[in-house]
Amino acid sequence: MQSKRQHLNISACSRFLFGNREFFFLLFFVFLLETLTANVLLVPQDFASIQTAIDSAQTGDTVLVVPGIYQENLQIRNKDITLASNYLYSNSFVDVEATVLDGRRLSAVMQVFVRNKSKITGFKIINGDHFYGGGFVSDVSSPVITACIFENNYAQATGGAFYAEEGQPVLRKCLFIRNTSGAFGGAIASGYTEITVDHCTFYGNTSGDGGAVSCFQSSIPISNSIFLENFPEAISVWSGVTTAMFSNVQGGWDGEGNINADPLFCNADSNDFYLAANSPCIGTGQNGSDMGALSGACAPNAVVDEQVLIPGGLTLLGAFPNPFNPVTRIVFNLPEGGAVDFEVFDTRGGRVYGPVSAVLKTGRNSVLWRAKNLGTGQYFYRIQTANGALTGRLVLLK
Which CATH number characterizes residue 327's domain? Predict the structure, then answer.
């Protein structure tokens, strides 16, 4: 009887949501089958800490973490789970930046052990400190790590951000920024393993050997990735095989589709690793994709009239990303601190957001705007200060 009720409920939902179209019913039904036996554990709503939620989870469960700073050193053993931020459903790096795992220099930020195949998605991993793998240690495991930012992690020996020994871990759409190791692999190091690296960005990583990647008795296939300002070199192979294809490697690397050029990040000094519209990395990845973790978002002559100066020295630096969905950050410089009003209009001049007021400091500032309940199209924002006003164009694509 229970199964009949479930069947009737599913059928009713499918007709309501998809107009009884067979294809969408199938997708909906498969989704339900995959989720009926799994649990979603919410942090901090259901569990005060991420580790407590991990310990309570069973294989197949999802631990979903809301934005915040979590000062924890995590371990996953004896279960394959999904550990994710809101990026899992938003697909926005705003949620990655906002969901921080801080290792506090006490140990590695995260470790997975013994044939583990967990999925880790959408975290900013910082301040790890370990003998190997300051940010993440994969021990005889094959985790899939997607859309994570590894920044300012340290390993005394090898793998400042990430170290794997045995197993087949996968790194996709990850950024490795200013990580350090004392000997090998400022960002990634391996031993007797295969690490797949796809659509990743490596910037400012440092080590004694292999500023970004160091390979020992391993296979590291790299694709669609960007390497810039890694010291003393981007990639070092002690033994084993490291290949790169459709990647931008500073200093050059043999392989199909590889280039050696300035990737033209929007603003690397401010950790803005989106690509300018004239970047050589746009459209030159495999199958016409963009290289690196973040696709194009700014331009030399931006959609929002970047670098436009107005009387009083107020400077508009642009919106990142643009086009966007559903969140963008508008960046500008103030010649002096003071009250700022922000509002957004549609193409007919109707106000769709604001005005919102805040007192901001002198210099570089930004406004994070979420286009809630708005449709695809053009919008115009206005920033009003005592020194004048800025107006720029935004494109929302849903």
Answer: 2.60.40.2550
Rounded Cα distance between 329 and 327, Å, is: 7
Q: Which domain holds residue 377?
A: 308-396
More confident residue, 267 or 174: 174
Place of tokens 């973490």: 65
Does residue 298 lie within any of the structural domains? no
Q: Which residue has the higher pLDDT, 51 or 317?
A: 51
Write the pLDDT tens digit of every residue in 44-75: 999 999 999 999 999 999 999 999 999 999 99
Domain boundary among 267, 300, 332: 267
Q: Which helix (H) or strand (E) holds 94?
A: helix 93-98
Is residue 169 in some structural domain?
yes
How far is Cα 255 from Cα 31, in angstroms, rounded to an integer? Answer: 39
pLDDT for 303 equals: 33
pLDDT at 180: 95
Cα–Cα distance list, 268 to 273, 291, 351, 366 (Å): 6, 16, 34, 16
Residue 178's pLDDT is 95
Amino acid at 11: S
**How is 106-153 classified by DSSP, letter by letter?**
TS-SEEEESS---EEES-EEE--EEEE-SSEEEES---EEES-EEES-
Q: Are 65 and 43 in contact (CB under 8 A)?
A: yes
Helix (H) or strand (E) holding 32: helix 22-36
CB 266 within 8 A of CB 298: yes
Total number of domains in the chain: 3
CA distance 195 to 119: 15
Tokens, residue 59: 């294989």
The label of the residue with tokens 């696709």 reads 295
Three-state DSSP class for residue 120: strand
pLDDT at 102: 97
* CA gap 7, 83 in Å, rounded: 30
**How many C-beta neighbours within 10 Å does residue 166 have?**
18
Can you tell me the distance from the alpha carbon of 115 to that of 93, in angstroms, rounded to the nearest whole number? Answer: 29
User: Among 383, 387, 381, 392, which Cα is nearest to 335's?
Assistant: 387
The Cα–Cα gap between 318 and 296 comes to 13
Q: What are the tokens at 345?
A: 């209009």
For residue 67, say if its preceding peptide bond is cis, omega within 30 degrees of 0.
no
235: burial class by Cβ within 10 Å (0-12, 13-18, 19+)? buried
